[in-house]
Amino acid sequence: MGRSPCCDKIGVKKGPWTPEEDEKLLAYIQQYGHGSWRALPPKAGLQRCGKSCRLRWTNYLRPDIKRGKFSFQEEQTIIQLHALLGNRWSAIATHLPKRTDNEIKNYWNTHLKKRLAKMGIDPVTHRPKNDTLLSGDGQSKNAANLSHIAQWESARLEAEARLARQSKLSSGAGSVNSFQAQSPEFASTSSPIHKPVGPGRCLDVLKAWTSTGVWGQTSEAGAVNSGLSMRGVAGELESSTSTLSSAAGVGVRENSSAAFAGNSCDVDGGVTKEEREEEYWKYLPEQRNGIRSSFPFTSVLATESIRSSTSEHVPCGNFVEKFTDLLLSTDRHLSDDGGESDDNGSGSGGGSDYNEDNKNYWNSILNLVNSSPSGSPIF
DNA sequence: AAACTGTTCAACCGCCAGTGG
DNA sequence: CCCACTGGCGGTTGAACAGTT
């Protein structure tokens, strides 16, 4: 077959970018937009292939990129989303405004994956490593099935996002902030000069599940029942990742938009990151002990999913509700087993053993990970 | 101070899906 | 329907840097 390479290799520079090259690329895109990446390098006076330019722009030069250390909140979000989506970095990145998929991928590979592995948690399945011995065939199948469903769902959401972007594009004017935040290509094509991105907004898988009403649910916000329209997802969602990552652990319900609106998530609601991490340490021993016993996640949840999915081939509302509930529950988890937080126990019709058990699993992971800085005695 | 080892992260590569002629 | 092209994605690499011996 022999696909033509993205660029003729002769005369094309590779390797690290120089400041001069950066400047050229930046200046060109700011003035003209990137247009066709393939056609860009000669126009911009660069001896690079278009692919390299695109990568440099999306991973480094874009003005809305946040660099530096990942916050506590971001770590939590990555871990949770990775548990749900796997190595789908671009999908994960849409939930972390200002972070690139490449950066998230690197961070996962160099930090989070190792941390989980050292704690005896399989970073692929997010299950305790010896759990495979404990679980019977049924559980394994259920886990696989659940994973499949999660993939299906995330793919669906991505498709919706694409449709929404297209419709936004075609409809022309209007605020594009929410899409700029998550879609650099959109931002840069829609306007040569990058507009400042507003408060962090992004798609939220969990809220989408609960709010679109696609699965026959009542909208969390009350009135959203837009079917597959992205308005039900992006348009209505003000607070994005908040529900995923809000204050997991210390019972501090955060202002969700605050968690990602600014460049720093270190201080939320007057509680510093250090304070939160300190709180985590208090719970570590019992969480560590409980981690193996509290793993009914796949068995209960996946059984439910199988029952509901076999008939329609998609997860039904009941499954989604529980799955969503499970993940949403991470912001109040310690109140259940730690008892130290002043959890208001709001919403989510909790109280069932099912919910308790599932929370325990996720809480265990998050507690262990987040309460284990590199200097931790665990290591 | 030098050699060695481990870690980080920017950049590359190959593959795939979408799109338009 | 086919094919060529493009953009995007995830996995991998390797240079630079940091830490240790």
From TrEMBL:
GO terms for molecular function: DNA binding. Its main location: nucleus. Residues 9-61, 62-112 form the Myb-like domain. It holds the Pfam family Myb_DNA-binding. Residues 331-356 are annotated as: Disordered. It is found in: Nucleus. One of its GO terms (cellular component) is nucleus. Residues 9-61, 62-116 form the HTH myb-type domain. The keyword Hydrolase does not apply. Keywords: Developmental protein, DNA-binding, Nucleus, Repeat, Transcription, Transcription regulation. PROSITE patterns: HTH_MYB (PS51294), MYB_LIKE (PS50090). One of its GO terms (biological process) is regulation of cutin biosynthetic process. This is Myb-related protein 306-like. It comes from Sesamum indicum (Oriental sesame). The lineage of its organism: Eukaryota, Viridiplantae, Streptophyta, Embryophyta, Tracheophyta.
